[in-house]
Design a protein that fits this description.
This protein is α/β, with parallel strands linked by helices. It has a single domain, classed as Protein-Tyrosine Phosphatase, Chain A (Alpha-Beta Complex). The protein has helices at residues 20-28, 50-55, 73-88, 102-113, 119-129, 138-147, and strands at residues 4-7, 11-14, 33-36, 59-62, 93-96.
């Protein structure tokens, strides 16, 4: 499964893992924490079960965000906490939505904004590692712009 490392060995992004083969691929690439932004939990995908994640020693978090929309403020806070905990513990984290573009891109922008980047600096960083994640819906863009300090 193809992933994009946003921060090497720390933060990655992709589309949705589809099966056990994808999960094993993520494990082999170093992923130890999954943050799913899809409406439905990852367990609706065939072969992906809580037991598989346990076997792979992967933590799993599901924060359902509707497609083409930003998270709520509470969801954004929860996501920030998940990302902060994973990165502090040096457990490589994969953020994904269905296509790995809009919802994932929204969170990547927030990641950089929380670290003091301007919107344009965040966009440039994301363009460098996962160019498709700069394509946000109008709602997502407005949400991200609202976080800019």
């Amino acid at each position: 499964m193809k992933i994009s490392w946003i921060e090497p060995d720390l933060l990655a992004a992709s589309g949705i893992p589809l099966d056990a083969k994808d999960m094993h691929s993520l494990y082999q690439q170093g992923i130890r924490v999954l943050l799913s932004l899809t409406e439905q939990p990852l367990f609706t995908q065939r072969e992906i079960t809580p037991a598989l994640l346990t076997d792979l020693d992967m933590a799993y978090f599901h924060v359902p965000v509707p497609d083409q929309h930003p998270p709520t403020s509470d969801q954004a806070h929860a996501i920030s906490q998940i990302v902060a905990q994973a990165t502090a513990k040096k457990r490589p984290l994969l953020i994904h939505c269905h296509a790995g573009v809009g919802r994932t891109g929204t969170i990547l922008h927030l990641y950089y904004l929380e670290r003091g980047y301007t919107f344009e600096e965040a966009k440039a960083q994301i363009r460098r590692t996962r160019v498709q994640c700069i394509l946000l819906s109008e709602e997502q863009l407005a949400f991200v712009r609202g976080f800019e300090k």
